[in-house]
């Protein structure tokens, strides 16, 4: 797998890296409305760190009650090193659990191409430096079919140029403006960005009647 | 672009600056935290050597993992105990108030904020929990955030966000007999879709919404996220102020109440506010809604047939087929008569005092079907205490319900309250995703609390309006 960012150890990225493009082999995860309870079942969230969550990605889709492997792309050898996930509509709907993108990232996912994403999920991905780029149903279906047929070949997600290239084909995709700017300029560490504005924060707080009136 | 709405005003009041990403840095008025999504954020803070910026604007509770039967420490479940200890340590180190189980104030985060008067109109409220939208019932701008954003808020008192569009959902007319707020929101999601709200904040308005009590408004705002909207709100009015007047925040300080009221009034949407979209729903035409599938958008009126997948829009068919297979329902039939093994009355959607009262009235003088495992899990310790003072616990117990301690419980099955195998559950919660209630073969049917009570006593999904009358305390009740 090759990637423009050094996340393959599964850990967090440094605070101010740029993510202009991601390339790697693909994995298709088909279906609309795939919710966060499917991506990471709640029982695996009884933890106080995100370490080791990767192995539980899509757990109930991948394993039977007796821990035997079921048919699922994430169980297939040919997709085992994939880093670009290709999904359908409303992916990541449901809870705000960052455990969901954390699990996918720690499994090895560096970028997700899909028809649409739930907002909190996309925001959580951005906070991890994982782009979520979108295209229409036909385009996504074609990419999924291509990935199925070419599991060893590389897809390139150009975040800056808003394209996805697979084989000889390059298609236009959409990257949300704020997400593109944040990733391309390496300004997705919002804690650092906002922490620099302490005085302005105080001013805003002091202008609010419920803050000056008394605490909560 | 919307203009003059509550959303525009509250946004404007809390905007600190525009970030290089184009996002707005928004000041957070109330940050609620719980044990599942905050520990990693505190870890990140420690890594950076940063302190909590506004501990006095932060409040903690424990809800997801608390056992609802035996709450003695250490908890029987070691993982739950570890999460609890971690939270205790974090709040102690940072000087954050904690409604812990020994305080009598503990409960589901979206129940305790409003009941303690922390949630107020014109505030920004965030929590690492998608159902934070609940607090919008008070005219607050409230949204769920991820753990990295919790880190942001802990470290800076702010969150980075992009402004959304505003869709006004006007529910006209008067709701019919036994039709509740839950039915209104299930209907909205069914019509607009689970992703219909992406990019929008929902403003709920119209006669049917305005005539709801605060509990009902919370049930509606709670499920905004199930319709894809990050936030939902109702403009504050006299009903809102009446609730607030009687909370911890103002009970002993009526002057503070009067000082803040003009601000609350000022943030309500203007009469001539502009919206990006308006949807109107005739509230008087609704009936109780239940889900037949595995997303909250797969709902149907209790007397209507379950749809045939081929009659649905193309992009919904596959999901519908899979859902019907999982749920073992037959298109063309109604949900009435669908057998249930479990009845769960709980969650941040429908476990407030008003919900329990309505369900108890229905249960009184009846018995839970012998094949049904029925439980009531109050939304908070205060709800529990108030309900017990009214004798509701006895009503439920006598009927055969298990009366438990406050927490999220079987809404997501992170404690011992879980579905087993392929059990079917009539649930007053908000999500019917596969695996949500703790068993991946479990089957969840979402419905309003009275419908849950009705299913508990009959053993199957039942139109509560058709339950035969019975005599209670010399009076005849439905
Ligand atoms: S009751 Fe359910 S939906 Fe509400 S906060 Fe708890 S787990 Fe989440």
Automatic annotation (TrEMBL), chain A:
Belongs to the LeuD family. LeuD type 1 subfamily. Belongs to the LeuD family. LeuD type 2 subfamily. Catalyzes the isomerization between 2-isopropylmalate and 3-isopropylmalate, via the formation of 2-isopropylmaleate. It comes from Halobium salinum. InterPro entries: 3-IsopropMal_deHydase_ssu, Aconitase/3IPM_dehydase_swvl, AconitaseA/IPMdHydase_ssu_swvl, IPMI_Swivel, LeuD. Pathway: Amino-acid biosynthesis; L-leucine biosynthesis; L-leucine from 3-methyl-2-oxobutanoate: step 2/4. GO terms for biological process: L-leucine biosynthetic process. Signal peptide: none annotated. The keyword Lyase applies. It catalyses: (2R,3S)-3-isopropylmalate = (2S)-2-isopropylmalate. Its EC number is 4.2.1.33. One of its GO terms (molecular function) is 3-isopropylmalate dehydratase activity. The keyword Lyase applies. This is 3-isopropylmalate dehydratase. Keywords: Amino-acid biosynthesis, Branched-chain amino acid biosynthesis, Leucine biosynthesis, Lyase. The gene is leuD. Residues 1-28 are annotated as: Disordered.
Automatic annotation (TrEMBL), chain B:
Pfam families: Aconitase. Residues 8-459 form the Aconitase/3-isopropylmalate dehydratase large subunit alpha/beta/alpha domain. Its cofactor is [4Fe-4S] cluster. One of its GO terms (molecular function) is metal ion binding. InterPro entries: 3-IsopropMal_deHydase_lsu, Acnase/IPM_dHydase_lsu_aba_1/3, Acoase/IPM_deHydtase_lsu_aba, Aconitase_4Fe-4S_BS, Aconitase_4Fe-4S_dom, IPM_dehydratase_rel_enz, IPMI_cat. It catalyses: (2R,3S)-3-isopropylmalate = (2S)-2-isopropylmalate. The keyword Glycoprotein does not apply. Heterodimer of LeuC and LeuD. This is 3-isopropylmalate dehydratase large subunit. It comes from Halobium salinum.
């Amino acid at each position: 797998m090759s990637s423009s960012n050094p996340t393959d150890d599964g850990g967090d990225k440094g605070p101010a890296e740029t993510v202009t493009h991601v390339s790697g082999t693909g994995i298709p995860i088909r279906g609309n409305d795939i919710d966060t309870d499917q991506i990471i079942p709640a029982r695996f969230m009884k933890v106080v760190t995100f370490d080791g969550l990767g192995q539980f990605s899509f757990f109930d889709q991948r394993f039977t009650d007796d821990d035997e492997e079921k048919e699922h792309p994430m169980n297939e050898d040919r997709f085992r090193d994939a880093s670009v996930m290709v999904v359908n509509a409303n992916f990541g709907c449901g809870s705000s659990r960052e455990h969901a993108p954390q699990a996918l990232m720690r499994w090895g996912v560096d970028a997700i191409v899909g028809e649409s994403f739930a907002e909190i999920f996309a925001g959580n991905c951005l906070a991890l430096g994982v782009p979520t780029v979108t295209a229409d149903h036909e385009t996504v279906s074609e990419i999924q079919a291509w990935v199925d047929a070419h599991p060893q070949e590389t897809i390139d997600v150009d975040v800056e140029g808003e394209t996805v290239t697979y084989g000889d084909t390059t298609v236009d995709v959409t990257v949300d403006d704020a997400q593109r700017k944040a990733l391309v300029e390496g300004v997705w560490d919002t804690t650092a960005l906002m922490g620099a504005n302490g005085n302005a924060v105080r001013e805003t707080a002091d202008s609010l009647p419920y803050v000056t009136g008394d605490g909560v | 672009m919307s203009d003059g709405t509550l959303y525009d005003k509250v946004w404007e009041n809390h905007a600190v600056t525009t970030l290089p990403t184009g996002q707005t840095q928004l000041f957070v008025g109330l940050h609620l935290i719980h044990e599942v999504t905050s520990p990693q954020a505190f870890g990140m803070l420690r890594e950076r050597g940063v302190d909590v910026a506004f501990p006095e604007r932060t409040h903690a509770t424990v809800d997801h993992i608390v056992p609802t039967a035996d709450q003695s420490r250490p908890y029987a479940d070691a993982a739950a105990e570890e999460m609890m200890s971690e939270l205790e340590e974090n709040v102690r180190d940072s000087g954050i108030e904690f409604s812990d189980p020994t305080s009598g104030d503990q409960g589901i985060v979206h129940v305790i904020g409003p009941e303690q008067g922390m949630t107020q109109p014109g505030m920004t409220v965030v929590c690492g929990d998608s159902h934070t939208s609940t607090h919008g019932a008070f005219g607050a701008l409230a949204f769920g955030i991820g753990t990295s954003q919790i880190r942001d808020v802990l470290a800076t008192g702010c969150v980075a966000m992009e402004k959304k569009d505003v869709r006004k959902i006007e529910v006209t007319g008067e709701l019919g007999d036994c039709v509740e707020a839950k039915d209104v929101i299930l209907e909205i999601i069914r019509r607009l879709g689970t992703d219909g709200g992406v990019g929008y904040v929902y403003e709920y308005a119209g006669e049917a919404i305005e005539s709801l009590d605060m509990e009902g408004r919370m049930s509606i705002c709670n499920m905004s996220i199930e319709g894809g909207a990050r936030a939902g709100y109702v403009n504050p009015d006299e009903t809102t102020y009446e609730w607030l007047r009687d909370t911890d925040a103002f009970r002993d300080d009526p002057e503070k109440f009067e000082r803040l009221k003009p601000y609350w009034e000022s943030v309500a949407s203007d009469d001539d506010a502009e919206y990006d979209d308006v949807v109107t729903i005739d509230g008087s035409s609704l009936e109780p809604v239940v889900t037949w599938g595995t997303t909250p958008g797969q709902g149907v009126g209790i007397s209507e047939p379950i749809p045939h997948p081929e009659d649905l829009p193309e992009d919904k068919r596959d999901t519908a087929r899979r859902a019907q297979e999982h749920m073992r329902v037959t298109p063309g039939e109604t949900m009435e008569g669908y057998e249930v093994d479990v009845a769960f009355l709980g969650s941040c959607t429908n476990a407030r005092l008003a919900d329990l009262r309505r369900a108890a009235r229905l249960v009184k003088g009846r018995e839970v079907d012998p094949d049904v495992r029925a439980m009531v899990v109050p939304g908070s310790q205060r709800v529990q205490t108030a309900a017990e003072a009214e004798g509701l616990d006895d009503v439920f117990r006598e009927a055969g319900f298990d009366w438990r301690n406050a927490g999220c419980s079987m809404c997501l099955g992170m404690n011992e309250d879980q579905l087993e195998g392929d059990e079917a559950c009539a649930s007053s919660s908000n999500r019917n995703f596969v695996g949500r209630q703790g068993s991946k073969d479990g089957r969840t049917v979402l419905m309003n609390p009275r419908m849950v009570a009705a299913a508990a006593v009959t053993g199957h999904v039942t139109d509560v309006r058709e339950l035969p009358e019975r005599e209670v305390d010399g009076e005849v009740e439905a």
